[in-house]
């Protein structure tokens, strides 16, 4: 059994490591000859829109998936004609377009921030009156990690923001005042079974995930609302694989922010903190196998390493710290690795985070996790 | 950082999977072109005594280790002149020779079964009078998984047994009547720090490990005795890496049976059942890094798949079951994979073992685990 992954980044790499014990090989396709999945999986070097290479790649594999959402949807449709593509092209297309995504959330009765579509300059004026400011203008397509979005303080700045985003089709959203950011990672099997990991709390810095605390402390009601949303999204799209949904917690009510049709950075803690990792469950789903247990054991804090890695040898002195080096060279803003600190309970995790803050040069990054556990 | 592993079997394979997130690459050397580590790590195909190939291999690596104990000690000594070999050749040589091993256990005041050395036929008669029967005759070297040993019911059969073992240097041991088989996996770092996983209980069938229950239910006194033994062995040998010691539990007293100078089959449960796996801790030790936490979370049962794999898709329906396919073809007596069933407590583990017995064609293998948990 071979699974082809379009994209050869750290997500494909962690899928490959999870697939190997299942007797499943991951093959990755990426235009970069040094794509980091290549260290642990056979790598096909080709452009994402090279249809000949994509077909040759598909011929090698029993099923196709992807590790990022900006895969060309037409290319994926072409592959779907010859191999199962999981999640399906409809799921990808929905997640690729903030307009379609919002429409889906509305259809399944999940609250979203007030928004207006601006596909053409003529729609700017109407949007400015229908959406309260401060707001955020986001391109409908090709956004990730805070890219493709601009804060807009008031209506007078909207036209300029639209121009700065290249007059691309956009969504204007009211900026939600939230208490915290939560996300849910769910997985749906080929037979329709859905399992959810516990809700987690995320802290973003400059639009990039900085840390995840798992599980989040939430009421059963909030957890149920998030799971209901994930279940409806997955069923509406006939989704197969891992799916992540980001929410804002606004006075105990969930506002859906966006979905990711793939394994998700806020699910990395599951490698050591849950019975079955999101990577294994994604591979199981894509391969048509039964899902694994999504329960957490203990509590975890995932710290993203952005730009460069802190000192590994010092980090490994922290009890319960699990190191993940993606084998990428350092570069500003690049996700080059992460660490997950696991502990049996919150007070032990707090102690370990203090230790990590002591030995690593990342005090500012770790502080919000400590604050949340105090 | 590259670690060279002499041997490319499942142990090297699992080391490679554990090393990758640490930013460490494992390279394997094995004479078999289809050695199963080759699927996840660069594989150098060469005979174990091909000194030219070994030196070329060592040049690629920062440190050398091995995944089985029948590595040629002279070859390893040769490599030790150019690269750190961990554990060191003395440790390997001691574990390779049941005579030296027994002498070491005696030196550190660890009880062993009454034994006599038979290096030459002239020693048979003396051995037969000094050792009580029934006994076991074992070759001093090249024994593993029950190979190279013969049960000897009484003195009259000893000469014949010796001939059947090819007149090789042997150890004759009184057959110990034990209540259970236990083993301890320990790890010693370059700086001398030693950590031990909890004692586990093993069930062997035809000399091959069939299952491991972790942790074993033992008194603190018994656990302390096992850890003291491991600590003394590791310190006596200036050992670096993972070390396993097998014991018999005789009315609450430990009798050391043998040691393995490597990651051990009875430690496979640590991949999912402990905070840090034996494979990661071995890699950390060989690379000179700090050790990881050896605590178990919950309870685990590891089931070895010998000869062929049971049905994977049915197995994955068992909650908490973790599948390990080594990518080897089926062959009688061959270890082709294992599964570890984890659970938060013994009653849940018992229920899951019942489920496994229902869906897998391995009732007889699972029964002893169920019996021990009842």
Number of helices of chain A: 13
Oligomer: homodimer
Q: For the largest interface in this structure, which chains are involved and how many residues does each contribute?
A: A-B, 34 and 34 residues
Shape of chain A: globular
Strand content of chain A: 25-35%
Measured as a percent range, the helix fraction of chain A is 25-40%
Return the CATH topology of the largest domain in chain A: D-amino Acid Aminotransferase, Chain A, domain 1
Radius of gyration of chain A: 20 Å
Structural class assignment of chain A: alpha+beta
Regions with little confidence, pLDDT below 50 for 5+ residues of chain A: none
Major beta sheet summary of chain A? 9 strands, antiparallel
Q: At the first level of CATH, what is the class of the largest domain in chain A?
A: Alpha Beta
Describe this structure in words.
2 copies of one chain form a homodimer. By secondary structure, the first copy, chain A, is α+β, with helices and mostly antiparallel strands. Chain A folds into 3 domains: 2-85, 3-Layer(aba) Sandwich (Rossmann fold); 114-174, 2-Layer Sandwich (Dna Ligase, domain 1), CATH 3.30.1490.20; 180-373, ATP-grasp fold, B domain (D-amino Acid Aminotransferase, Chain A, domain 1, 2-Layer Sandwich), CATH 3.30.470.20. Chain A has 13 helices and 17 strands. Chain A has helices spanning 10-19, 51-60, 73-80, 89-96, 98-107, 124-130, 158-164, 220-236, 270-273, 278-286, 312-315, 346-359, 363-373; strands at 2-6, 25-30, 43-45, 63-66, 115-118, 135-139, 149-152, 170-174, 180-188, 194-196, 200-205, 208-214, 241-250, 253-260, 299-306, 321-325, 335-343. In chain A, strands 9, 10, 11, 12, 13, 14, 15, 16 and 17 form a 9-stranded antiparallel sheet that branches. In chain A, a hairpin with a 2-residue loop joins strand 13 (241-250) and strand 14. In chain A, helix 4 crosses helix 5 (98-107) and helix 12 (346-359) runs antiparallel to helix 13 (363-373). Chain A is globular, with a radius of gyration of 20 Å. The model of chain A has no long low-confidence stretch (mean pLDDT 96). The A-B interface holds A 13, 17, 20-23, 25, 39-40, 272, 275-276, 284, 289-290, 292-293, 297-298, 309, 312-313, 316-317, 319-320, 322-325, 327, 337, 342, 344 and B 13, 17, 20-23, 25, 39-40, 272, 275-276, 284, 289-290, 292-293, 297-298, 309, 312-313, 316-317, 319-320, 322-325, 327, 337, 342, 344.
């Amino acid at each position: 059994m071979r699974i082809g992954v379009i994209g050869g980044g750290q997500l494909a790499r962690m899928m490959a490591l999870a697939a190997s014990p299942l007797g499943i090989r991951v093959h990755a396709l990426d235009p970069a000859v040094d794509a980091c999945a290549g260290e642990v999986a056979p790598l096909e070097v080709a452009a994402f829109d090279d249809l000949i290479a994509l077909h040759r790649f598909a011929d090698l594999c029993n099923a196709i998936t992807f590790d990022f959402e900006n895969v060309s949807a037409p290319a994926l449709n072409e592959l779907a004609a010859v191999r199962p593509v999981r999640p399906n092209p409809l799921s990808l297309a929905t997640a690729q377009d903030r307009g379609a995504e919002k429409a889906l959330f509305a259809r399944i009765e999940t609250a979203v921030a007030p928004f207006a579509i601006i596909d053409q300059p003529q729609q700017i004026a109407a949007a400015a009156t229908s959406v309260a400011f401060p707001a955020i203008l986001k391109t409908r397509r090709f956004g990730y990690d805070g890219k493709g979005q601009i804060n807009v303080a008031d209506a007078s700045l909207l036209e300029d923001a639209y121009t700065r985003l290249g007059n691309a089709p956009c969504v204007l959203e009211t900026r939600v005042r939230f208490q915290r950011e939560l996300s849910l990672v769910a997985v749906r099997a080929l037979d329709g079974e859905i399992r959810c990991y516990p809700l987690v709390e995320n802290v973003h810095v400059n639009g990039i995930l900085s840390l995840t605390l798992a599980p989040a402390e939430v009421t059963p009601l909030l957890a149920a609302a998030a799971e209901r949303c994930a279940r409806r999204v997955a069923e509406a799209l006939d989704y197969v694989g891992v799916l992540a949904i980001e929410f804002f917690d606004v006075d105990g009510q969930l506002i859906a922010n966006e979905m990711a049709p793939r394994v998700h950075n806020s699910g990395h803690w599951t490698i050591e903190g849950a019975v079955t990792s999101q990577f294994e469950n994604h591979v199981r789903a894509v391969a048509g196998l039964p899902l694994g247990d999504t329960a957490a054991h203990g509590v975890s804090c995932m710290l993203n390493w952005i730009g460069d890695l802190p000192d590994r040898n010092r980090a490994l002195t922290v009890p319960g710290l699990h190191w993940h080096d993606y084998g990428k060279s350092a570069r500003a803003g690049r996700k080059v690795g992460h660490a997950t600190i696991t502990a049996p309970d919150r007070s032990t995790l707090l102690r370990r985070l203090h230790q990590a803050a002591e030995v690593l040069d990342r005090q500012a990054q770790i502080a919000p996790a400590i604050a949340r556990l105090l």
